[in-house]
Amino acid sequence: MTRIVAGESAVPKRKRAIEAALAVGLVLLIVVGAVVASTVSRNTEAQAVAPSPAAELKLGYFGNVTHAPALVGVKEGFLAEALGSTILSTETFNAGPAAIEALNAGAIDAAYIGPNPAINSFVKSSGESVRIIAGAAAGGAQLVVKPDITSAADLEGKTIASPQLGGTQDVALRAWLADQGYKTNVDGSGDVAINPTENAQSLKLFQDGKLDGAWLPEPWASRLVLQAGARVLVDEKDLWDGTGTGKPGEFPTTVLIVNQKFAGEHPDTVKALLAGHVRSVAWLNETPAEQKAGVINSALQESAGAALADDVLARSLANITFTLDPLAGGYPRLLQDGVEAGTTKQADINGLFDLRALNEVAGATTTISAAGLGQD
């Protein structure tokens, strides 16, 4: 029964009820439509950013024996085979800072590089630029000098080369000189002049008597010793007692890094790259010396334009350990050396390492540790 109030008919009352019901229904339709649209939008966005294999992976490395995992991986096809349908493109560099610039600019996606440039990039980008995903080589760096320089005391006023300002050997040289009581500056002034110089130029300048020495990676240290009459003043392995790593005499020389954005978009491609890398390191550690030397020399001919003399290559390989372990426990020292050398700033490097894919691919019984500086 409909109750009729004085002065009001039943018809308008029913009309308002119908209008109210229609309004409620319209609101419900709008709400449901918004929910559906939001769900479709989220699904579309998820599909747009879903990780997928990369069409191409651009890899950087140096024409140095310390980068043999890259040399062998490219030459023997280990990397290309592991990447499958992803095209492998390569570019060679002289030193780490230049490779980092290329990686940050998107010219390359991953690189074999020294630890200090990796630290610098991570620090400058507040942890957004790169991740270290594997070790590659340890050792293989020396300070070689003229024969008449027999102690640190003889270096005052001398000119010493390093591959590039802020590179791993550059920082090691500056840190060691500071320990000897010498002051150096990034502009080349100071008690000992440090002249960042391309490796091949360092050999020529030393032969011409225009350099007193150089802190160099292999094979350049061996070339100065065997081909230019230099003597070893400091073998860097003697400066590492195993603190933080548990491996006396081993120090990180070459690691494999990846652009963080690329890794996020193409995790399967990064895992495939690591599979090829693991195979390269295993090959270097298991292959007979003569065969190994032949492949490395052929790769150096292609990437650096020249093969090495047999004695140079043999001496170089004897100084290097090829390893998947990036020796993460040594990085606080590397960071501090860079800070004291004036080539980086004090920072938190937690997150620098992501070794999860490496440990999955390598299948080792012992987990390769990030030493609390990332994920393993």
Low-confidence residue ranges: 1-48
Instruction: Indicate the overall shape.
Output: globular
Radius of gyration: 29 Å
Instruction: Provide a count of the helices.
Output: 14
Kindly state the mean pLDDT as a whole number? Answer: 88
> Structural class per helix/strand content?
alpha/beta
The rounded distance between the terminal residues' Cα atoms is 75 Å
Order of helices and strands: HEHHEHEHEEEHEHEHEEHHHHEHEHE
Beta-sheet strand percentage? 15-25%
Largest sheet: 6 strands, mixed
Report the strand count. Answer: 13
The spatial strand order of the largest sheet comes to 2-1-3-10-4-11
Helix content estimate = 40-55%
List keywords for this structure.
14 helices, 5-stranded mixed beta sheet, 6-stranded mixed beta sheet, globular, single chain, alpha/beta, 376 residues
